[in-house]
User: Fold this.
Amino acid sequence: MSAVAAKITPNTIAEHGLTSEEYDLILEIMGREPSMTELGIFSVMWSEHCSYKSSRVHLKKLPTKAPWVIQGPGENAGVIDIGDGQAAIFKMESHNHPSFIEPYQGAATGVGGIMRDVFTMGARPIANLNALRFGAPDDPKTKHLVSGVVAGIGGYGNCMGVPTVGGEVNFHPSYNGNILVNAMTVGLADTDKIFYSAAAGLGNPVIYVGAKTGRDGIHGATMASAEFNEDSEEKRPTVQVGDPFTEKLLLEACLELMATDAIVAIQDMGAAGLTSSSVEMSSKGGLGLELDLDKVPVRETGMTAYEIMLSESQERMLMVLKPQAMAQARAIFEKWELDFAEIGVLTDTGHLVLKKNGKVEADMPVAPLVDKAPVYQRPWVPTPPQPVITANQVPAPQDLMAVLKQLVAAPDLASKRWVWEQYDHLVMGHTVQRPGGDAAVVLIPAGKGGAVGKKALAMSSDCTPRYCQADPKTGGAQAVAESWRNLTAVGARPLAVTDNMNFGNPQRPEIMGQFALAIEGMAEACIALDYPVVSGNVSLYNETNGKGILPTPTIGGVGVIADVTKSPKVAFKSAGDSIYLIGETAGWLGCSVFLREIHGREEGAPPPVDLAAERRNGDFVRNLIERGLITACHDVSDGGTLVALAEMAMASGIGADLLARPKESPDHAFWFGEDQARYVLTVRQADVAVLELQAKEIGIAFRYLGKTGGTDLTLAGAGAISVSELKSAHEAFFPKLMGASK
Amino acid sequence: MKSAIVVFPGSNREKDAEAALTEITGTPPVMVWHRDTELPKVDLVLVPGGFSYGDYLRCGAIAAHSPILREVKARADQGMAVLGICNGFQIITEAGLLPGVLQQNAGLKFVCRNVNLRVETSQSLFTSRYEKGQVLSIPVAHHEGNYYADEKTLDELESRDQVAFRYCAPDGSLDPSHNPNGSQRAIAGVFNRTKNVLGLMPHPENAIRELLGSTDGRGLFKAMAEALAA
Assistant:
C-alpha cells in the first residue's frame, strides 16, 4: 500500500474498519482529505481495541480509587502502594485473536506485551499469570491450540526469567472458534521511581529503542476489533512474531536506565505500535511531536510511512529523554546491543508530524485524534433471568464417591500439571505457593533494598463464565468475590484488581447487555470489598460466524501478605486436624459443575453473591490465619465442598473422615452445591475451641466436617475412596488429551 | 571463599545464584560481564542458568565462544573450581570443559518440577556434605537437559567416579519414569576428570529455603565454601 498514489475510496475506508460517519468526522478534524498514512493512524487509534469506543461509557462505573491506589486505569498498568516504599504494578491483557490464528506466537507476544506494559513503568516483573479458555476438548482444533498456546507462554516467559506462577485453564464449546488468552504480569517498583508516559519539555529528543521495525502485525489492533469468519486463517500475517531474548535485553537496559534520572517519559510500543505510543505520549503531555521516519531502525527495505507507523513489531519502546543524558543512555543500550535512535523531537504545534524522505507524510492535530474519538452508547438488553433450580429438581446420585471421582477428572477440575510444568515457575527463587493453590504467593524484599523475608505478594486470576452467561451481573460480582476469596485463603489482604473483559460483538444488544450488567456486578463487588480496579483491557468481537463466547470478565487480583510463614496451603498439613466449613450452605445446584458434568445440564440461575457475607467470612478467615491458627485453607468454588476437600486431600496425600451432611440438605446439594463466600479450613485440635467461640461471637456460619487422617476420603454413610485413586483420575485428563506419555 | 558469576545477555538465574552464594558462603560473588576478558582472583566461577544469547544456534554454543569463557577455561585448567548450572552446564559442555552434550528433552517440552537426585559420590569439593546414595529434592527447569555421550565416554565417566548426580525415584532406585528428560543413564550432573568442574541441570540455588519447598541445595554451597575457604 503506497502512501503516495493511493486514493481513498469508500472501500478503503471500510477496509480500515471505519464507518462512513467516522470518516466524515476525520474530514472535519483534518479539514481536508487525509493521506493514506493519516487514515491508517485514525483507523488504529479509533479501533475498538485502542479507543474503547463501545465500552468506555460502562467502564466509568468501576471504582478506581482507594488510599493505596497510586495509579488507576489510563496508564500502561495500574500501581498500588504495598507499604515500605514499595509499589506493585500490574495489568492483564488479552491476545485472543492472534492466539487463535497462530497459537505459539500469539500467546508468546501476549506475554511479551504485558511484561513490557509493566516494566515501562519502572517495575521489574516478578510474576506472570494467565487465564486460558479453550473450546471443547474434543473439538478438532483444541489440542493444537492448547499445545501451541502453552508452549508460547512458556517459550516467552521462561526466557525472560520471570516465573509463571498461576492462572486458569477452562474448556467450553463456546470458545471453539475463539479461544481466550489473557496474560497478567505483576511487577515490583519503589514508589518514588515510577515512570509515566506524558511527554514534557519542548525540544526534548524522542528516542526509539529495542528491536527493529518490520512489516509484521500491521493492523493487528484492527483485526482484534472485528469478528472472525472462515477466512480468519488468512489473517496470519497480522500476527506479530516475538523474540523474548531481545525483550530480556530491553528489560535489563530499561531498568538500568531507569536507575538514573535520564527519562522524562516512556511508553512501550504495543498494539498499533509507533502510532499509539507517539500519540499517547504527545496527547498526555499536551505537546506536538515530529518524527523523522527515515531514522526508525527497520529490518526490511522499502518500508513506507504507513507501514512503519502501523507495524506491531515487538520489543520496542519510545522514550523522551533529558538532552544532557543522551550519551549515558546511548551507552547503556549499546552495552545491551540494542538499537538506540533519536527519531524526533517534542514541538509546541500540538500536531503529530511525520516525515519520510524529506516529505511530510502526515500532519495531524493530536488532541482531536484522541478527544474526538467516537464513543458509542450502544443499545443493550438485559439477559433474561434463569429459573432457580432446587435440589429436588435434580436426581440424587447413587454413589457419591463415584461422582466425586468423575468430577475431579472433568476437564475444568482436572489437574493442570501438564500445563504449568512447561512454565518455569521457580526462576527468581521466590515462589512460595506454586501453581495449583488458591493464589500464587511470591516473596518480596521487606522494603526498598531490603532482604527477602516474610513479606509476600499473592495473586490470582478468576472468572466463572457460565455464571456470567446465566446472569451477567451476578457473574461479574462473583468473579470479583472469588478473586478476593482466593487471596484471602492464603492470608493476603486483597488490594486491587485488573480486569480483562472478553465479550462478543458489542453491536448486538444482548452482548452489550452482558457487558453492561457484568460491569454493574463487578462495580458492586469492588466497592463492597474495597477492591478497586486499577488497570484492564477490553476484548470485544470474540465471536465466529455470529456466535459469541461465554461472557468472560477475567479478574486478576493482587494482595499483600505481611508474614508468609503463616500463609496456609490447600494441602492438609497433618493427620488429626479438625476440618471446618465456613459460610452458609443452601445447596445451590443451578449452573453448578455437578449439574453440567453429571447431568449434562447447563442451566439455572447461578448462586447468589452476598457481598456482606463474603466480607464477613473472609475477614474472619484472614484474622485466624494472621494469628497462626489455620493449618490448611481452600476456598469453595467449582464443584462445591466435597471437591474442595478432595483437592486438599490430593495435594497432601492425607485423607479425611467426614461426618454425614445435615439432615435437611440432600447429599448432592450439600456436597456439590456452589454457594458462595465459603472456605474449608483445618485447625489443630487445640485450636478448635478458639475457632468456634470466635465464629459464634461474630455470627459466622460454620460446620464441623470431620478430621484429617489416613489415606482415604471417607464419608459417613457414603463409603470411601482412596486419595491415590482420586489423584490418578485427577491427573489423567491433560496427558490423555495431549497424548503425552505421563 | 571468593566467587564470581559470569553474566551473559539472556542469563536469568544469576541473581538466584548470587543470593545463594551470598547467604550460604557469607561473601557476595563478583558479577562478571560476558565481554570482560579478565576474571578477578576468585576460588570459584559459577556459570548460571538462563537463555544466554537467546539459545540461538544451540543452547550454550555462542556463550562458549565468548571472551570470558576462554579465561574461565584457562583458569579451570589451572585447577580453579567451576560450577555450571542448567544453561551454565550447557555452556561449559559446549566449551569442552566437560564431556557430552545436552539435547532436547525426550518429552520435547520444557519441564519445571522438583526431581529426586541421587548423590553418586561424596568425593568432591561440591558434594562432600552429602552422603553417597542420599536422595535430594531439587527443581529442574529446562528444555534441553537430556544428557548424551557415547557408551565409551559414559563408561569412562562411571569408572572415574565422574557422575555427580542421577535422577531417581524417591527411594533412590533408577526408574525411567523419574527421569525428566531422557538423559543417558539418568545422569543429571558430571565432573571433569580432576573434579574441579561440575555441571548439572537441576537448580540447587532454588533449593535453599524450607519456605520455597526444599533446603537440599544448601549442602552443595556449604561444601564449596568449606573446601575453598581461604
